Every structure is written in C-alpha cells, then in structure tokens.
C-alpha cells in the first residue's frame, strides 16, 4: 500500500513509520504544522508544534529512509480543535481536544488529502489495534494497557478506520523505545508528550483566562447560598475539589466538590461528594467504529469517560445517534462535553459526547 | 530517471570548480599568515579575486569575500544603514522592492523592529518588474531620509531582470545595493556599468561550491562591519578566508563567463520547450513573469486548482525536483511573497511551482515531466477539492 506516516517528531510515530516501511509499504513521512506561527503554541519538547519537533521528525524520516514533507494544517487545527476547545469551555463543558484532533485533522483532513493524492492509508504512532474479526476490521485496545489510546481514536468512523494503520498496537512502550534505539532513531529517549499540545506549560486555567477573559462569578451550594467567588466558571471542572477558595466553611468541615458549571449565569455549584454520583449517562453525536449496535435493544459492555479512565461495566442502548448508558456502579463526577466510549470487551464499539448525566 | 529542475536553489559544481577546489584543499596555509605557506595561499586567493572581479566588471579591490549571499546582503543593508544613519540621524529610511529575497527582506524587517528603521516597499508590476514611477515618487518625497535602496538584479522566483540602471538614475547620490546572485554568470552583469554601490554574488549559484559569496563594494566606500576580528577583507569582513571555496568560486565564475551566451540560448529554448510541453497537457497553466529580459532558465507556473506542495510531493515521487518558493523556519510552505507582490491571489500563489533549469537538463527530462504532469495535476486538484 501507499501510506502517509504522520510524524510528530516523537518516538512513537517514528517507530510506527519505520514499521510501515518494513511491512513492505511505500511510505512518505508527513509532519503536520498545526500553528501558522510555530512559536505561538511553543512549549518545549512536548510532542508537537515546535520547530525542534519538525526537525526531529525530518531527521527520523532521514534515518528510516523515506521522503518527508510538512503539511500546513494550521487553519484546520485552529478552527477544528483550538476554537472548539474554547467554545466548549465557554459553554461550561470539558472538552478533550485530542479526540477532536484525531477526528477532524489526522483522520479527516490528512486522510482525505492522502487519499486524493493517491495514498491508501495514514499510519500513526497511536497505541490501538486494528484486527480482522467476524465483525470485519475492528478496533481494539492496545497490548500495553498503560499506553492504550483506543479512547481518543473512538471518534473515528468505519470509513476513517479503514484508512488508518496503527503499527504499535501490539507492543509495549518500553519495547518501542528499545526498538527506536536499535534503529538509530535519536528520539528514542524523548519524553512522552502530556497535557494539551497547544497550551504552553500545561497551565490550562491561565491559557483559558487569557483567551476567555476574567469574569467574577459566584460559587454557590445546591440551595443557591453564596459560598465564594471565582474569576471565570470555565476554569472549573466537575468533580474538582481543590482551589475552590470557599469563604463559608462547610458544616462539619466535609470537603465540597464542583457539581455543576452554569455558563449563562457564570455560576459554579458545589456540594458534597455523594451529589457527584452518576449512574446514567446520555451521549449525543454517536460515532460507530464498527457495526452499529441494534437499536432499541439493551447491550452489555463497558463505558469509559476519560483517556486513561477505568472501563465501567454497563448496559447501553442506542437509537443510532444517541447512546444511553446505565452504569452497574455509579461513578463520581462527570462533566458534559467529555467523550463517552463504549467497549465490548476490548473492542471499541463507538463513542458519543456526554450531553446529560443523572 | 531523476530530473532536477531546481537549479536556482543550487546547481552542480562545474568541472573546473571541482578541480580547483580539490587541488586547493590540499594546500596548507592561512592566507593571512606572513610566511611562505601563507603567501602561497594568499596568491591563489588574490588570483581568484581578480578572476571574479573580471567576470563581474569590478576591480579586484571591490570584491569582499563572505560566507553566503545572505551574509553579503546583510552586510550591505545593515552596513549602509548604520553608516548613513551615523552620518545623519534622520536617515533611517530603507527602500526595497516588494519582492526581494528573504536575505534582504528579513534584515530590513529586523532593522525596523530593533534599530528604528522605517521601511518603504516599492510595488512591482504584474509582470514582475519594479515600478519605477512609484520609486521616483518615494525617492522624491524622502530623498534626505533614505539610507539605502535595494532592488534585486533579477528575481529568483520568476526570473525577471530589473531596470537597475534606471533605479540608480532615480536614486542619484543615495546608495543602491543589488542582490545579483541569480544573475551573475547567467546574464550580462557589469558592476561598474550598473552604477550600483554594492552587489551580492554567490558561488554555488554559478557552479561553484557552497559556503562562499562576495559583496562587490565600490572602491573607497566603507560600510559598518557585522563581524569584527582579524580585519580581513578591507576590515569589512573579518574571518579566515575560505581559500579552497574562493579559488573554486573563481574557476566557476570564469567558466560561466566563457560559456554564458551559448548557455543562455540553450536554457532559454529549453525553458520554452518546458512551457510548451506542459501547456499542451495542462492548457490552463499560467506563466508568471513571462517577459524579457529575464534569466534564461526559470519557469514559474500556476496550476489553477492545485496546492503546490501536493504537486511537489507527487513530482518528487516521480523523481522530479521542483520548488514551491520559500518555507518558514519549521518548513511550512508559505504562499510566495513574490507572486503576491505581483498581484496574484493567495490561492493562485499557493498553486504555483518554480522550475529552474540548468545546463545539465535535457529535453528527455522535460518529456518525462510532461508525461506525468496530467495525472499529478489531477490528483493535486482532487486533494484541494477535498479540503
């Protein structure tokens, strides 16, 4: 096959590209420039967006012996990921920009372009496995549970996954680093990227403040009694306990948690831990990674609501566009806007965006 | 078959240049040393200086060796700015054409950001020629305040030759610098006749080695140096002279001078053959800056409805090298500021490729290019349509 290997400049995508070559594919390395001014989102060795990273990617392509180009996806990234991230926070939700980037950039803009230019697929360094099963070509969790990234890939539909190759899914991260060293890739010891690539130094609240402005609002209890003030409701996340700076102490000194964010009134509602319990989740904008589960039926499976969160046993149903989940055990704290991913054992069934909880 | 159509970026070293380089690199001696070995290398450097001066219509003392065309341009722009501002603190205006190479644009922008310069860009016509009426107007309005004027001798992306003699006439006693890296050795270039105060020429664009260039600087004129040290090159450019590269540059310049006219005819015909062959297959191609006088081997083409980096990738996969113009420091392709200055839309600028021919190119290579261009353009169009 003719393959575009998306190369971030990190160790994973470099080894993934090398493996694609070794598997006999005709591979071209592409680094995505996600900012029109690479200094704008500059953040050190964090896995994307810097001049150094594009150099690292180029050097890895040299070592592997494949052509290398830089594709300008700055506009698409800004519109599809950064602006979406801000809008979601402004609306009181907690978005995951990595999901949006996979959905709108890596496996949409890039894959579309690759296909039009005559390529068959895009290979990335994500940790997930594509397998031929009686259900067709389906996506499964990675072999390395600590690195499994199937959650952030669950926003890809069947057609996108048909053009996706994840050469690292069957390998543990430590082995990938050893392999990089063996192959003479000097990114072998480059630190993993964490946090959000376009937010420098991981200071999410500060970054949001700079862009969404500061607006003083109230922190209240469930009865509406004012307990304190904040500088912008969007910097709070449901389930958060620290940094609330409440001026009215709770009876008995029990800790209080963010229960709800109300963007219209710029209000943060806090309460006791028990009030965070969620046993029903509704998700909208469902995306199916394989066969669509039969509508109107109850299915057993697992729900996951964070990238490295637990798989929660559940019963779910769908009408195709929405997913409704009943958890066997309630979970504490779930913000709307988060990604809800449904698994059937280790197979990714599909995903939706959390729209309501009970 | 690999076809290299990027000779304006760099071109193969000529045989005389390779021979001179390999011979000189075996010779011991720092040309600034006073002993026998030093004098022996110094002699070769001075012979090279004379040969380059002869090929450029300059006198030997007007040749200041530097490490790159970029360095020569920086030295001229910053050197004249600081010198002339030092003489008169009101002279902080720099006038440049709107489509200068980044080696002029960026130092000028830097002077504006850090050293109080005020930059005025002279527009260029749709054909890619500096607008002399506009220049006249700018000079009349700012005459007392202009530190230096820079207009390139020929444009590196579209190949058009600029009316430098007229620019000098308009400038009067204001110093005019010209970036002639693309012209030197390819078209008639005579430093004395042009009347400019300084000009940049570069080794690797004429079949010499990388890492050597010169600033031609009129006799008796000094500029403020950027590098301070051993006082080489009239105290204007300190640094041990790169003797093998200088000697090799001279061999290339002499070779280019001897064969200039026959090569011009060969390349001009080959360029027309390229344009005719491609237009026969992709009829809506637009040729940018298609006027005389021009560099012989540059064809800048707009392929409507494509993204040029897609074209480049697909051609590269066929073994064909072309160029999209400049990229930012991270390698992100940018729409060419040259084409934008000529009035092309950003969309058309992003759909343009430069093919620059050299004497090693053949009609067979162009036939290979025309045999794949239709399918390449088709795929590149599909890729843009999907966005």
Concise synopsis of the structure shown:
The complex is a heterodimer of chains A (about 350) and B (about 375). Chain A is of the alpha/beta class.
3D structure, described in words:
The complex is a heterodimer of chains A (358) and B (387). Chain A contains eight helices and 17 strands. Chain A is of the alpha/beta class and 358 residues long. Chain A has a six-stranded antiparallel β-barrel with strand order 12-15-14-13-16-17. A five-stranded parallel sheet of chain A has the order 3-2-1-4-7, sandwiched between helices. In chain A, a hairpin with a 2-residue loop joins strand 16 and strand 17. In chain A, helix 1 (11-22) runs parallel beside helix 2 and helix 1 (11-22) packs across helix 7. The longest helix of chain A is centred in the N-terminal third of the chain and has 20 residues, at 97-116. By secondary structure, chain B is α/β, with parallel strands linked by helices. In chain B, the strands form three sheets. Chain B has a seven-stranded mixed sheet, with helices on both faces. A three-stranded antiparallel sheet of chain B has the order 9-10-12. In chain B, strands 1-11 form a two-stranded parallel ribbon. Chain B starts with a strand and ends with a helix. The model of chain B has no long low-confidence stretch (mean pLDDT 96). At the A-B interface, strand 2, helix 2, strand 3 and helix 4 of A face helix 9 and helix 12 of B.
Distance between the termini of chain B: 32 Å
| Poorly predicted spans of chain B | none
Instruction: Return the string of H and E elements of chain B.
Output: EHHEHEHEHEHEHEEHEEHEHHEH
Largest sheet of chain A: 6 strands, antiparallel, barrel
| Biggest chain-to-chain interface with counts | A-B, 22 and 21 residues
Residues in helix, % of chain A: 25-40%
DSSP strand tally of chain A: 17
Walk me through the topology:
The complex is a heterodimer of chains A (358) and B (387).
Chain A (H helix, E strand, L loop, with lengths): L1 E5 L4 H12 L3 E8 L17 H14 L3 E5 L1 H17 L6 H20 L4 E3 L5 E5 L2 E5 L9 H4 L4 H5 L1 E2 L7 H10 L21 H9 L4 E4 L5 E5 L26 E6 L4 E5 L5 E12 L10 E6 L7 E7 L4 E10 L6 E6 L2 E11 L1
Parallel strand pairs in A: 1-2, 1-4, 2-3, 4-7, 8-11
Antiparallel strand pairs in A: 5-6, 8-9, 10-11, 12-15, 12-17, 13-14, 13-16, 14-15, 16-17
Chain B lengths: L2 E2 L10 H10 L11 H21 L6 E4 L2 H19 L5 E5 L4 H13 L3 E5 L9 H11 L3 E5 L13 H8 L4 E4 L11 H4 L3 E5 L10 E5 L25 H39 L4 E3 L9 E5 L5 H10 L2 E2 L15 H5 L4 H4 L2 E5 L6 H23 L2
Parallel strand pairs in B: 1-11, 3-4, 3-5, 5-6, 6-7
Antiparallel strand pairs in B: 2-8, 7-8, 9-10, 10-12
């Amino acid at each position: 096959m003719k393959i575009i290997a998306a190369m971030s400049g990190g160790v994973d995508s470099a080894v993934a590209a090398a493996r694609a070559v070794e598997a006999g594919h005709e591979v071209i390395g592409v680094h995505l420039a996600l900012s029109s001014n690479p200094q704008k989102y500059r953040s050190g060795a964090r896995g994307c967006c810097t001049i150094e990273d594009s150099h690292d990617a180029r050097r890895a392509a040299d070592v592997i012996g494949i052509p290398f180009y830089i594709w300008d996806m700055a506009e698409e990234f800004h519109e599809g990921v950064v602006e979406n991230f801000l809008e979601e926070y402004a609306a009181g939700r907690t978005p995951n920009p990595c999901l949006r980037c996979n959905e709108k950039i890596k496996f949409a803009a890039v894959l579309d372009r690759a296909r039009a230019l005559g390529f068959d697929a895009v290979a990335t360094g994500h940790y997930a496995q594509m397998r031929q099963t009686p259900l067709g070509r389906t996506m499964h969790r990675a072999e390395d549970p600590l690195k499994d990234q199937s959650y952030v890939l669950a926003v890809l539909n069947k057609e996108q996954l048909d053009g996706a190759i994840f050469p690292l899914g069957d390998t543990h991260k430590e082995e990938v680093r050893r392999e990089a060293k063996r192959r003479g890739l000097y990114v072998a010891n480059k630190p993993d990227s964490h946090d959000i690539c376009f937010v420098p130094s991981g200071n999410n609240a500060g970054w949001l403040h700079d862009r969404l402005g500061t607006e003083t609002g109230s922190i209240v209890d469930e009865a509406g009694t004012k307990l304190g003030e904040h500088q912008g409701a969007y910097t709070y996340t449901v389930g958060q306990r620290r940094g609330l700076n409440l001026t009215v102490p709770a009876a008995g000194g029990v800790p209080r948690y963010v229960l709800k964010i109300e963007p219209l009134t710029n209000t943060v509602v806090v309460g006791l831990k028990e009030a965070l319990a969620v046993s029903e989740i509704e998700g909208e904008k469902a995306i199916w990674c394989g066969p669509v589960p039969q509508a109107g039926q109850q299915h057993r499976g697992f729900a996951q609501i964070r990238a490295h969160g637990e798989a929660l046993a559940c019963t779910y149903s769908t009408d195709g566009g929405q997913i409704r989940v009943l958890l066997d055990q309630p979970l504490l704290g779930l913000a709307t806007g988060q990604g809800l991913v449904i698994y059937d054992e280790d197979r990714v069934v599909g995903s939706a965006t959390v729209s309501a909880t009970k | 078959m690999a076809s290299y159509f990027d000779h304006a970026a760099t071109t193969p070293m000529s045989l005389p240049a390779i021979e001179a380089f390999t011979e000189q690199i075996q010779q011991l001696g720092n040309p600034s040393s006073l002993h026998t070995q030093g004098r022996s290398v110094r002699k070769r450097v001075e012979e090279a200086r004379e040969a380059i001066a002869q090929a450029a219509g300059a006198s030997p003392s007007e040749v200041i060796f530097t490490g790159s065309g970029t360095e020569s341009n920086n030295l001229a722009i910053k050197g004249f700015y600081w010198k002339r501002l030092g003489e008169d603190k009101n002279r902080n205006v720099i006038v440049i054409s709107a489509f200068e190479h980044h080696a002029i644009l960026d130092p000028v922008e830097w002077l504006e950001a850090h050293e109080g310069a005020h930059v005025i860009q002279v527009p260029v016509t749709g054909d890619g020629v500096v607008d002399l009426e506009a220049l006249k107007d700018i000079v009349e309005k700012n005459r007392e305040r202009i530190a230096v004027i820079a207009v390139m001798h020929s444009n590196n992306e579209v190949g058009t030759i600029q009316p430098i003699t007229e620019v000098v006439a308009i400038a009067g006693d204001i110093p005019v610098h010209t970036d002639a890296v693309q012209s030197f050795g390819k078209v008639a270039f005579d430093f004395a006749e042009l009347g400019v105060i300084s000009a940049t020429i570069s080794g690797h664009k004429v079949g010499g080695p990388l890492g050597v260039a010169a600033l031609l600087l009129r006799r008796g004129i000094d500029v403020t140096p950027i590098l301070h040290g051993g006082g080489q090159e009239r105290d204007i450019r300190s640094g041990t002279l790169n003797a093998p590269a200088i000697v090799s540059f001279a061999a290339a310049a002499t070779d280019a001078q001897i064969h200039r006219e026959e090569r011009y005819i060969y390349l001009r015909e080959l360029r027309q053959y390229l344009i005719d062959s491609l237009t026969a297959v992709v009829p809506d191609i637009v040729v940018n800056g298609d006027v005389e006088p021009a560099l012989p081997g540059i064809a800048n083409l707009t392929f409507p409805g494509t993204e040029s980096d897609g074209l480049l990738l697909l051609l590269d996969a066929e073994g064909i090298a072309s160029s999209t113009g400049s990229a930012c420091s991270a390698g992100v392709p940018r729409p060419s500021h040259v084409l934008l200055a000529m009035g092309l839309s950003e969309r058309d600028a992003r759909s343009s490729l430069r093919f620059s021919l050299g004497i090693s190119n053949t009609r067979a290579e162009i036939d290979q290019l025309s045999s794949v261009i239709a399918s390449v353009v088709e795929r590149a169009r599909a890729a843009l349509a999907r966005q």
